Amino acid sequence: MTAATHSTLFPQVPESADAVLDGLDPEQRAVATALHGPVCVLAGAGTGKTRAITHRIAYGVRAGILQPNTVLAVTFTNRAAGEMRGRLRQLGAGGVQARTFHSAALRQLQFFWPKAVGGDLPRIVDRKIQLVADAAAASRLRLDRGELRDVTAEIEWSKVTQTVPGDYAAAAHKAARETPRHPAEIAQIYSDYETLKRDRGVIDFEDVLLLTVGVLQDRQDIAEQVRAQYQHFVVDEYQDVSPLQQRLLDLWLGDRDSLCVVGDASQTIYSFTGATPDHLLNFRTRHPSATVVKLVRDYRSTPQVVHLANGVLARARGRAAEHRLELISQREAGPEPVYVEYADEPTEAEGAARRIRELIASGVTAGEIAILFRTNGQSEIYEQALADAGVPYQLRGAERFFERPEVRKAGHSLRAAARFGGNDAGLDEAVDLPSQVRAVLSGEGWTTQPPAGSGAVRERWESLAALARLAEDFARANPAATLADLVTELDERANAQHAPTVDGVTLASLHAAKGLEWDAVFLVGVAEGMMPISYAKTDEQVEEERRLLYVGVTRARRHLGISWALSRSPGGRPNRRASRFLDGLRPGSTGPAGRGAGGGTGGVEHGTRPDDAVWEPPAGARRRGDRKVARCRVCGHTLDAAEMKLMRCEDCPSDMDEGLYDRLIEWRARTAATLGQPAFCVFTDKTLIAIAEASPDDERELSRIPGVGRRKFRTYGSDVLALCAGQMVGDETDEGAGGA
Questions:
Q1: Is 601 annotated as a binding residue?
Q2: pLDDT tens-digit profile of 411-463?
Q3: 709 assigned binding-site residue
Q4: 596 marked ligand binding residue
Q5: What is the 3-class SS of 250-317, one letter each residue?
Q6: Rg (Cα) of the chain, in Å, rounded?
Q7: pTM of the model
Q8: Which of 258, 141, 251 is nearest to 190 (CA)?
Q9: Is 43 annotated to bind ligand?
Q10: According to the UniProt entry, which residue ranges have a biased composition of type Gly residues (predicted)?
Q11: 538 is in an annotated binding site
Q12: Is 321 annotated as ligand-binding?
């Protein structure tokens, strides 16, 4: 969740230009009023950079200094561009263009292509990877799925760094890239890939930037036309620009200096895509007259979280570290970050899920909690643990909200109801806007209770439920609003990609979490080999991993949990250790905390826990007892974490009692309906399979089955054992009595 959605949902438009400046701190106000010449904003995490630059644009527009249609604000994701457009609209500067580099370039390319080249712009390929596969085949090289993905990434890196096929090998060596195949082979595939594109008359995503650069370089008349249109530029996340994006920006600017850039070198985490902080760090050199403003007041995180974030960077090295910003928290004190060492990964996942249940019980909403990990492959075990604990969750990085089929279809139905609702008998009993929306969504399959299970059906329900909640929020903010007003709001949000929030714990990689924030964050798997990742070999790569951890820490507003596991699987060799980045910061660790990490109010080194930390290391953390390797009960093969539920390999034959499994499924459905919960919150399918295979005779055998756990054993244990013994429980018993 972003700061925008954490504040008032529908704020009033400021009455005047001066009112736009209300509520800004002195540094943010300095940014907002610096409307001439080059401006560089060095903004630490949580310091309100988006607030500062959107108020800067809005103040310039409202004061008549900037014409809205001559301003181009550029960022890196559609979500960020959508949020910026939404904020500008709320500030009364709705005519400003806020786009990604690619979106802005594509718009210009489509407009000028007939004039510059003739004909229609070539089709942009949807799936580049298939073209790369064809190029590899043309080169007589066979790539497996992983190599195909990695070679595609190498081609993308080459293009954004303006590296041609003939120079790839030397450029990759200079950049110390770990190439998936021999550099000469990749260069050959890259060359054949470019040939195939030309032969098929298509272009790719990177070509959009390359071709726009080419047109602006070759056609001075077109370049002047673009510069006449856009006279003032704002670039967000400037530490992430690639050489190609910087070249395009230079061509947009020409010989002018009406440019404002915003960034933080300590949040440079995308160098593998060609991003470099050099342009940010060299800005004052390129623009000696630039105004430089540093934002260091952190409004997001407590002093304890900020203290740890400063400590993570305190031992950083390299040029980016020399320009690090020392954050100063503006919030009241909160709980200390909590560090937990676990015996194995399944126990770590269960511990996180247990802690999340405690937070939700204490009043923290599920949508304000996130679990962040280094790689997407770590997601599954946390999905399972949350499902077992009955905690709703959402995966970050899914399809954009307003492009989901069910959302688009619901939008059409709401629009039709707004136009012809007087003839719709289904709306006759709807007394207010929220009930009207619920009536329309009911026709799309929405129900007051979520469906049992997970997957596509649950995701579809969550989308419709988010629209229902948005209608309630909109009606509270605008009591006189009609269905037509809501449809207009949805259209504006769709154009701005300003999606409503989903009330579920977020699961995301650290890279995907950039730009987001939550009340509670769990950083999991923070161990050597994962943080830093094992293939980070050079000093530059290790320092980027340190910055990635810094980004993770600064996502938390109040509660922060950091954990790692000694082994991958239960009973495995405990040969892992906590990340070196935590040395001198976590309680009991050795090593200097580094410059600037001491003092403050966090006291992380001492490991104290205020009363409101409400988290003691859970039972099972750092167990060093049983050292047996977990083995398949069918073939004896060592099990990985995902196979622990069944205590057998996925492809080994099952000895499941089919009749017992059917009875368990029926019992679970009745129990879930009674509780008003999805079925998986009672037991997951995999846990029911494990029970049906083990057919436990007593409490001891049932409690040992992975996925049961103490809470579920206490709640459901007697019913499950009765079913295993062939007895009837619940409604079955009543039905049997009634039929006697």
A1: no
A2: 888 988 888 765 566 676 777 888 889 888 888 888 887 665 444 565 677 77
A3: no
A4: no
A5: HHHHCCCCCEEEEECHHHCCCHHHCCCCHHHHCHHHHCCCCEEEEECEECCCCHHHHHHHHHHHHCCC
A6: 28
A7: 0.67
A8: 141
A9: yes
A10: 591-605
A11: no
A12: no
